[in-house]
Write a structure and sequence with these properties.
By secondary structure, the chain is α+β, with helices and mostly antiparallel strands. The chain folds into two domains: 36 residues, no CATH class; 133 residues, Nucleoside Triphosphate Pyrophosphohydrolase (Alpha-Beta Complex), CATH 3.90.79. Helices cover 19% and strands 42% of the residues. Strands 4, 5, 6, 7, 8, 9, 10 and 11 form an eight-stranded mixed sheet that branches. Strands 1-2-3 form a three-stranded antiparallel sheet, with no helix packed on it. Strand 2 and strand 3 form a beta hairpin. The relative contact order is 0.19.
């Protein structure tokens, strides 16, 4: 059986759009592969992101609660954030875990990446597993963050997942990794 696969759209040109600090807009003009009509599309250029699945020695998951401006509420998530310019995503994962939670680990494993919204974003979100995570220091969140740390066991995480406590889609993906590990 032959699969019908959409054709690649040819990029005619790109124009810079507004700079929104955490991402930049770009206008791409692409040729539709069937109609050959040139269509303008918006792409948001963003640095990559990281999420950290941090499990303590006794297999408890380190989580954070923080206010999210887009939905105007506090969300339950795994620690994570933006990869700084020139920074490797592994180093970003280590930094974010330490900054947001005060936890560290010497046992790291890469779980892979997802494309957060390939319709409009050009970045990746990398997920790292930190096993045997331990409290190294007090959390030191960035100036624009107000974070609380929670450490939950397997049953509590599963119940929170079933109850819909995880609403951030990238955190849901990370939690699914945890559920596979347990």
């Amino acid at each position: 059986m032959t699969k019908n696969v959409p054709a690649h759209w040819k990029k005619i040109r790109s124009e810079a759009g507004p700079d929104f600090v955490i991402m930049k807009a770009r206008h791409d003009y692409l040729e539709h592969p069937r109609s050959h009509q040139v269509m303008k599309r918006v792409v948001f250029e963003s640095t990559d992101w990281v999420n950290v699945v941090a499990l303590t020695e006794d297999e408890q998951l380190v989580l954070v609660r923080q206010f999210r401006f887009g939905v105007e509420k506090v969300t339950l998530e795994v620690p994570g954030g933006m990869v700084d310019p020139g920074e490797d995503h592994f180093e970003a994962a280590r930094r974010e875990l330490l900054e947001e939670t005060g936890f560290a680990s010497e046992d790291w494993h890469y779980l892979g990446y997802v494309e957060p919204n390939p319709a409009i974003l050009d970045n990746h979100c990398h997920t790292w597993l930190a096993r045997k995570a331990f409290r190294q220091q007090e959390p030191n969140p960035e100036a624009g963050e107000d974070i609380t740390v929670e450490v939950l066991g397997k049953d509590a995480v599963k119940q929170a997942y079933r109850d819909g406590a995880f609403r951030h889609s990238l955190a849901v993906i990370a939690v699914l990794h945890v559920l596979e590990l347990w």
